[in-house]
Design goal:
196 residues; alpha/beta; 7 helices; 6 strands
Length: 196
């Protein structure tokens, strides 16, 4: 009986690991960048497809509501719809897909909320996108366990960032130093901290 219990527990444990491995692999596939697709449909359409495929939502310039249905993406002449806001709440976006952000010229708001794959390298990559350095004004980073002080400090390159909301980030160890460095680099930035 004891041997049977050990065998059952081992099988269940292996099943959990196999499922995790499968979902990690699938999420990696969803984040793969297709540079030919970007060329053929334009950066905003390709980025919207990536974000929705990964469970995020996008709001296009001139529209009030967020799109969350991949099959419901607006169609029309190439380049007609421009992404203005990204809500990546509980999505599987990861560093691998961040090259999709390179051609976006109108994004002024991004929310990372409960994004298990968002890490410092993602925030560093985001901050290095030239267009976003000029357009991004509002940002939230909430319950992203892999984000540390290093990733938040990297946001100093977003020179027009006006509002930053940070909450439930256990990787932030030196709150005062992190906020001070951001405030020094971006004096107009309003930082709201909820890191208790």
């Amino acid at each position: 009986m004891r041997l049977l219990l050990k065998t059952v527990r081992a099988a269940v444990s292996q099943g959990d690991q196999s499922r995790r491995h499968f979902w990690g692999w699938l999420n990696g596939v969803f984040n793969k960048v297709d540079y030919e697709r970007i060329k053929s449909v334009g950066p905003d359409q390709a980025a919207a497809e990536w974000l929705l495929r990964c469970g995020a939502k996008v709001r296009f310039q001139g529209l009030d509501r967020f799109h969350h249905d991949y099959n419901g993406l607006p169609t029309g002449p190439l380049g007609r719809y421009k992404i203005q806001a990204i809500d990546a709440t509980e999505s599987c976006i990861m560093y691998r897909g961040f090259d999709h952000l390179d051609g976006l010229k109108y994004v002024d708001e991004i929310k990372f909320n409960k994004c298990i794959y968002i890490e410092d390298a993602c925030l560093e990559r985001l901050s290095s996108v030239e267009n976003l350095q000029d357009t991004l004004k509002r940002m939230e980073v909430v319950t992203c366990g892999n984000v540390t002080d290093k990733g938040i400090i990297a946001l100093h390159k977003l020179r027009n960032l006006e509002h930053l909301f940070l909450s439930d980030l256990p990787g932030i160890k030196d709150k005062q130093m992190t906020v001070q460095r951001l405030q020094t680099a971006l004096p107009r930035l309003d930082i709201v901290l909820d890191l208790a």
